[in-house]
Predict the structure.
Amino acid sequence: MLRQLENLYSINVSRLEKSVIRELLKLTQKSEIISFAGGLPSPETFPVSQIADLIKDVVTKDGLGALQYGPTEGDPRLINEIMKFLKDDGIRFKSENILITSASQQALDLVGKVFLNRNNLVIVGRPSYIGALSAFKSYSAKFVGVDLDEEGMRIDLLKEKLHQMRLEADLPKFIYVIPDFQNPAGVTLSLSRRKTLLELAREYQILIVEDTPYRSLRYVGDHLPSLYQLDNGEGYVVSIFTFSKILSPGLRLGWILANSKLIDKFVVAKQAMDLCTSPFNQAIAYTYCHRGLLKKHVEEIIVLYKKKRMVMLEALEKFMPKHPDIHWTKPDGGLFLWVQLPKTFDVDDMFYQAVKEEVAYVVGTGFYTDDSGKNAMRLNFSYPSEEDIIEGIRRLAKVIAKNL
Ligand SMILES: Cc1ncc(COP(=O)(O)O)c(C=O)c1O
């Protein structure tokens, strides 16, 4: 039996800890529990029969290609479909600016691999997506958090931080943002902040990593240009997209848009990871898009989630205790909203009470790189049914009222 395995781990890996969130979520496996905890799309959106039908076609018509290795950059046919899809979003790019990835989590890891040395600084929102924090942590990055408000990352605070960092001659490698319907807070970066963010990137000569899994899922308000679009090819933005929330996370398909030089680096880094993203899954996604199904599908998802979002907001209004320090965000899109509780709350402790009442949420603490988030929680509205949303919020409000 191998002893002292710990001595064999790399420094980067030995710093990684088991996710507290995952441990807590194990308690929510029972079917009676109404869970607002996952980040999952609703399975009722998965186009199962269409996919079954087109898989047959992929295998019979394109089997030899789909079962073979493919180019690291991605299937050119899928890239062509993505070009058409993003054109409607106002985003234009050339084939040298894209790399197909095994969903956006791999893209985040690639960003870490390409840019981060030990103790390099990364600016992140407070709170921020836990999977990105883990990806960057695995390259021993250090985080500088910038608070969010209803308009996304506080650019005034970001300016101050950057100024200070320049004085200390320790500028960050990049700023990580989720501009549209942020995970976990549900807030959207305003247009004026997007523009100032780009100005700052130019002034300080640093990159912006824009993560956009929820971008197509807008339910209210006006569409805003992506940072990639606003950058207009200057090369300050690395933009990450995924099929996970608009088609299926099981396909594990996403893509990076960036300056062509950077794409070359990502390609080399990806080759060392998995050679290429599954050509079979790319062929499925290509066929799905080529048949004109994606746009219609996204429109249908929007109708479903828009309703669920409304049901959750109405249930919160109805059941939550009225208290000046209890409030929540009203996201214009995406899958989540963020509930802020009085400072006296400890959502980690309260989680066990919630599970007893058969309702679950994600503790706010998981989304911070410091000890914050004890009095905040993330609620997902895409996965539970409308009836479960109402009943679950009623149960959660009862638990919160007990702790006031
Ligand atoms: C902001 C953000 N980035 C990346 C991901 C990873 O998604 P995937 O790897 O399925 O594309 C998620 C998943 O919830 C997310 O919320």
